Amino acid sequence: MNITEFVERSIGRWRSQRSAHHLAFGHFEAIQSVIDIVAMTLDDPAVVDLCKSYNIDTKAAVSPFRMSWDGQSDWDENEVLKGSCILVPVPDRDRPNRGKLLRDQGYAETMAAAGDYYLTEDDTFVLVTAYDRAAAEEKIWFVNPNVRCRVSLIKTSAGTGIVTASFSSEIRQEIKN
Amino acid sequence: MNITEFVERSIGRWRSQRSAHHLAFGHFEAIQSVIDIVAMTLDDPAVVDLCKSYNIDTKAAVSPFRMSWDGQSDWDENEVLKGSCILVPVPDRDRPNRGKLLRDQGYAETMAAAGDYYLTEDDTFVLVTAYDRAAAEEKIWFVNPNVRCRVSLIKTSAGTGIVTASFSSEIRQEIKN
């Protein structure tokens, strides 16, 4: 599977159950949300701007998409877990299974970030993103066309400490018109 | 990483946080447990018996171990989540990264089961076990020497339906004498 196929399979509306394990405290957090993943075009001004901000030629980019989420945590029901971001894969020229993923806004920190991704031989998408004071490692794979799993780890940047480990099971929803 | 290294890295006591997502109902279950993984020897009578029951020569087996768990779920605090099983890897002769994993008692169903395992290029252990009416798929990987992640999926055997997806983060505990 290449990144284009991976993005194609991800397009749609997903109902997500996410469990976050806050490891230092042994706490569990449960988050339910709806995630929309929508294909964009390479000539969309928002995609062009994002590429420009990273000095990337849009000709090197493939399969840009927008991801939106709207959820609720059992920790604080008043907290709004809502947002969206634009993601643009930029495959390596020489290694088609690897590349950069540009993002106009991260969800670990609300700032722009570029991560490094690769696809494994068993079709797992792995994304590593370094932030100022933390690093995020994410694995996403399809169990079948309508079920995705996602494991996200937030690590301290200076070492191997894991702060949060979270797991999402995502089920494709039909969108009724 | 081969299966012997994988087992070696797993030996010890682990504090586990597990979240189970019961997908049909959108339910979350939180389980906290202590897991002990202890090396056994190939001449241990329990290992010899297990190999015999599968018609496997113990010379073909490597790194047998016993796994015990003792936990509590937030669904039913009176339920005892306690047990142990013996596991015996039997690598394929021709493909060292694949093999069978014999188990004297499964945890999806309390019966003996032999699963098929493989190790991916990025050191994830994948185990697929077929039961009478269900199939279990498990992925385990080390984030660092003291943190393991484990994703388990229980599927209906006749199709692609996923019944439960669960995620464990496991942190190595020091054992004080």
TrEMBL record, chains A, B:
Belongs to the CpcS/CpeS biliprotein lyase family. Covalently attaches a chromophore to Cys residue(s) of phycobiliproteins. This is Chromophore lyase CpcS/CpeS. The keyword Lyase applies. It comes from the Bacteria. One of its GO terms (biological process) is protein-tetrapyrrole linkage. Coiled coil: none annotated. CDD domains: lipocalin_CpcS-CpeS. Keywords: Lyase. InterPro entries: Calycin (IPR012674), CpcS/CpeS (IPR018536). Pfam families: CpeS. The lineage of its organism: Bacteria, Bacillati, Cyanobacteriota, Cyanophyceae, Nostocales. Its EC number is 4.-.-.-. GO terms for molecular function: lyase activity.
